[in-house]
Amino acid sequence: MSLVFSAVAGVVLDGLLGEPKRWHPLVAFGRLAERIERRSNAGGRAWRSHGLSAWCLAVLPLTLLVGVLAQLPLIGWAVEILALYVALGLKSLGQHALPVAQALRLGDLPLARARVGYLVSRNSAALDATGVARAGTESVLENGSDAVFAALFWFLVAGAPGVVLYRLSNTLDAMWGYRNERFERFGWAAAKIDDGLNYLPARLVALSYALLGKTALALRCWRQQAPQWDSPNAGPVMAAGAGALGVSLGGAAEYHGELHQRPQLGEGPPPRARDIERALNLVYAGALLWLALLLSWELYRA
After folding, report:
1. Crossing angle of helices 215-225 and 234-245, rounded to 10°
2. Mean pLDDT computed over 175-180
3. Is residue 237 within 8 Å of residue 205, measured between CB atoms?
4. Residue 155: which domain range?
5. What's the whole-number mean pLDDT along residues 242-260?
6. Residue percentage of the chain with pLDDT more than 90
7. Count of structural domains, the chain
């Protein structure tokens, strides 16, 4: 089975089943990563080389194992589809984002704050309705890139081992890639590797968002605003996404007790509940666009 048809099968499986309810492989991997970090970074005193060694220990054996299994006759095609299915988070993104929008529509701000807290790492306890809508919209745009499009990209580039390497790397960045005393040195490798793996996918996502929304505004916001953002990959994705939707994102946000003044992204009014849904629809449309282009190319080649 070609990688294109395996990719379609993986997306369909995610749409039908969503995340595994029990024994999610990424949950098990997270526990493994915690044990590796505790042993390799005791007291938060490890050097960058220790962080790189820990990354290799956590990621490479599982990547190689999946690569071997994917080459086996009879079951290799199933391993490929399952690897992509486990790595994708398209249905899960909607399951987490839509309750935020629904709570805002009902005027239940405490519930909306609680729900958006599942999506973002910022402090959501004191957010007003606009702050919740902004956090939800930003999260959908950024997580769409990380949990959907980048996974598809690396699957198409390198099959099952490619998507496993990417997803495990992205998970380690979420766990170790903090700029604080404990992870500043140890998590450096995880953060830089994730930045490298997301560089091309993020820009393809930004282009997809632009093509599916207010194209001229999205391209202008990407060009002018993305360089001001701290993250080299989230900047293009969120600037283009905000421009495509015609809303203003960014601004002040509290992370781990510290208030961060972030540059504005996009242009237009602040987001509302419906903009969370619009951002989610942008991700869905982007996924359909990618799959349609891939299938068209596969049929053309045939």
Report:
1. 150
2. 88
3. yes
4. 3-301
5. 89
6. 84
7. 1
Stated pTM of the model: 0.95
Task: Say if CB 158 and CB 201 are below 8 A apart.
Answer: no
- Cα separation of 299 and 293, whole Å? 10
Of 150, 5, 29, 19, the closest CA to residue 85 belongs to 19
Question: How many Cβ atoms are within 10 Å of 15's Cβ, its own excluded?
Answer: 15
**pLDDT of 1 higher than 70:** no
Query: d(Cα 5, Cα 77) in Å, to the nearest integer?
Result: 10
Q: Which two tokens stand for residue 48?
A: 């960058």
Whether the CA torsion 269, 275, 276, 282 is positive or negative: it is negative
Amino acid at 89: G
Pick from 253, 283, 280, 281: nearest CA to 265: 253
SS3 track for the chain: CCHHHHHHHHHHHHHHHCCCCCCCHHHHHHHHHHHHHHHHCHHHCCCHHHHHHHHHHHHHHHHHHHHHHHCCCCCHHHHHHHHHHHHCCHHHHHHHHHHHHHHHHCCCHHHHHHHHHCCCCECCCCCCHHHHHHHHHHHHHHHHHHHHHHHHHHHHHHHHHHHHHHHHHHHHHHHHCCCCCCCCCCCHHHHHHHHHHHHHHHHHHHHHHHHHCCHHHHHHHHHHHHHHCCCCCHHHHHHHHHHHHCCEEEEEEEECCEEEEEEEEECCCCCCHHHHHHHHHHHHHHHHHHHHHHHHHHHHHC
> Rounded to an integer, what distance in angstroms lies between the CA atom of residue 11 and that of residue 82?
10
What is the pLDDT averaged over residues 217-246? 97
Give the position of tokens 């994102």: 249
Residues 80, 3: contact at Cβ < 8 Å? yes
Exposure on the CB side of residue 46, measured as CA atoms within 13 A:
23
The partner residues of 248 in beta bridges, in order of sequence, read 266
